[in-house]
Amino acid sequence: MNYKLLGRSGLKVSELCLGTMGFGTEAGWGADQQTSFAIMDTFANAGGNFIDTANIYKLGTSEKIIGEYISNHDRDYFVLATKYTLLDNRTNPNASGNNRKNMMRSVEESLKRLKTDFIDVLYLHIWDNITPVDEVLRGLDDLIRQGKVNYAAISDTPAWVVAKGNTLAELMGWSQFIALQIEYSLLQRTPERELTPMAAHFGMTVTPWAPLAGGALTGKYLRGEQGRIKPESKRLDENSVRITKKVIEIANELGVSPGNVALQWTRQQGFSSIPIVGATKVEQLQENLKVTDLILSDAHLKALDEVSAVPLGFPGDFFNEEAVKVNSFGGFYDRVEKR
């Protein structure tokens, strides 16, 4: 794999990120420790160094497995990203949320499970709509100054909150968010309304989760294969089926897997993007790794964009209307009626 800079930083990470939400067998699914080790071996041998986990994944088992693995490997080779916010125990009312108390507690527990002295990238996992953003930023900056965290990032948060946070951090001299983790795929393009333009503006790398829409974009559900997806899921509705069929059509034309086409689409959207590829089997990861050899043509991108397009709403659609033209004298916009 090639390496990319993560956001506005000098941190070099692999062009794919290994998702480890499935490391552990709690809830009746997932990879045991031996299989998880084999997956991480495969990823590292392909040049992968960027690993994503969270304190909540498999009730902490994911972090424990990663900790066991890296304790017997070169810790400095790997870029470990984990998250705080969601509860990993029910001991007290502050054992969840974005607040500073939970942040500090969660980081200490993650460090123990990961068997490391520092976390490379710490994500706020999901916005709680309670904690002031300056409390979050100051807490993250303190952790970075203490050497327990190297970089701050954020996940599943409204664009206006992230924008306010990074602007405030720049003003105060605090560490800014360098990466934005969001659900993004051909079946979930609504982040294009606010989130991805905001990330591009601030130079943040987008790390899409569920880039294959829970496996729907591989076509396996159209083949009748079973999975953890619910029958009533929007990933299986008429629109999603139409999009998936187009992905399969292009994959057959190129002689690659549908999953590779769907993954590569997220990597060719005009902004820095490193999709998170989850795996509970070595074969799944091996297939996903093939995407690094694929480039989609403009024609293929156009076909995928058209079949999966979502309305941007106001002001996005307003900006894109053909009736809005640029005045050649000063770049002002003139509104003209269609006749």
Automatic annotation (TrEMBL):
Keyword set, alphabetical order: Oxidoreductase
Domain NADP-dependent oxidoreductase: 15-308
Keyword check for Oxidoreductase: yes
InterPro entries referenced in this protein's UniProt entry, alphabetically: AKR_Detox_Biosynth, NAD(P)_OxRdtase_dom_sf, NADP_OxRdtase_dom
Pfam families reported for this sequence: Aldo_ket_red
Coiled coil segments of this chain: none
PANTHER family: NAD(P)-LINKED OXIDOREDUCTASE SUPERFAMILY PROTEIN (PTHR43364:SF4), NADH-SPECIFIC METHYLGLYOXAL REDUCTASE-RELATED (PTHR43364)
Protein name, entry field: Aldo/keto reductase
Organism name: Mucilaginibacter defluvii
Organism classification: Bacteria, Pseudomonadati, Bacteroidota, Sphingobacteriia, Sphingobacteriales
